[in-house]
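INTERNAL AUDIT FORM
Audit reference: QA-55
Scope: verify that the stored structure record matches its stored sequence.
Auditor: D.O.
Record contents follow.
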Amino acid sequence: MGWPPRDIAVDIRPAKIWGISVSEVTDSPVLRRTVGARATAPGLTGPAAAEAAAEFEVFAGLLLEAAPRELVLRRLGEALALTSRQVNTL
């Protein structure tokens, strides 16, 4: 059911936010595919499997959109923790 596999190419560029190096996704592909593009036979896979595959592709797209924001928050948190440790040592 998972065939054919596909590579998902995402364009990423480096950026800086408040002096902290992060990555930004500049271009991401559309992840939603049709039943034919998934190479599944409609008669062999039921409607529940097609629905699950469609919802998974929507979920994967949301994860792809959220990943850069999560990375920015993580990097800002690490920088804040480092600054707090440096201030506390003074």
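Auditor finding: record pair retrieved intact. The chain has a mean pLDDT of 82.
Action required: none
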